[in-house]
Automatic annotation (TrEMBL):
Pathway annotation: Amino-acid biosynthesis; L-leucine biosynthesis; L-leucine from 3-methyl-2-oxobutanoate: step 2/4
Aconitase A/isopropylmalate dehydratase small subunit swivel domain location: 59-112
Keyword terms: Amino-acid biosynthesis, Branched-chain amino acid biosynthesis, Leucine biosynthesis, Lyase
Gene from which this protein is expressed: leuD
Family per record: Belongs to the LeuD family. LeuD type 2 subfamily.
NCBIfam families (UniProt xref): LEUD_arch
Catalytic activity, EC: 4.2.1.33
Catalytic activity: (2R,3S)-3-isopropylmalate = (2S)-2-isopropylmalate
Full protein name: 3-isopropylmalate dehydratase small subunit
Length: 175
């Protein structure tokens, strides 16, 4: 078993609350699609909802939202902007399928929880156990979340799809 498989998949941070239907144009306005540096993209993450979001967030903070997070276009700029802004994970009642997969592909955990948005407070410190399938709240309460299939958990453990493929190909080349 390699080192990445031994890594505990836990994300800890403050909760940032958002509503339903947060689309990719809100996550990263289209006028920034000309940018190619993910650190530059990060500076504009969610700027239409929270002025200066990228400078206010602490590394590892967690977005907690309602239904249909990441709806809109299929571009991966939106999850990249969140990841490079320091977002540790996104928890929502539901996600656009393409946003969900784009996020996993770049190594940004996205977690489905039907109750998190209603039970977590703005700024509350929470912890997400991706392998166990639960969120622990600051007050000790626990919320069950949809667990990842093993193959998606492996992609996240490796830091994204490209890193996962590289690890797998390197492993095959050694055998």
């Amino acid at each position: 078993m390699d080192a990445s498989s031994n890594r505990i998949m836990e994300v800890k941070g403050r909760a940032w609350l958002f509503g339903d239907d947060i689309d990719t144009d809100v996550i990263l306005p289209g006028k920034y699609l000309v940018l190619t540096d993910p650190n530059e993209l990060a500076k504009h993450a969610l700027e239409g909802l929270v002025s200066g979001f990228s400078s206010k967030i602490s590394k590892g903070d967690i977005i907690v939202a309602g239904k249909n997070f990441g709806c809109g276009s299929s571009r991966e700029h939106a999850p990249l902007a969140l990841k490079y802004a320091g977002v540790g994970a996104v928890v929502a009642k539901s996600f656009s399928r393409i946003f969900f997969r784009n996020a996993v592909n770049i190594g940004l955990p996205v977690v489905i929880s039907k109750e998190a948005r209603d039970l977590i407070k703005e700024g509350e410190k929470i912890s997400i156990d991706l392998e166990g399938g639960f969120i622990t709240k600051e007050d000790g309460g626990r919320l069950v979340v949809d667990k990842y299939p093993e193959f998606l958990l492996e992609i996240l453990k490796d830091g994204g799809l490209l890193q996962n493929l590289k690890r797998r190909f390197d492993k095959e080349a050694k055998t």
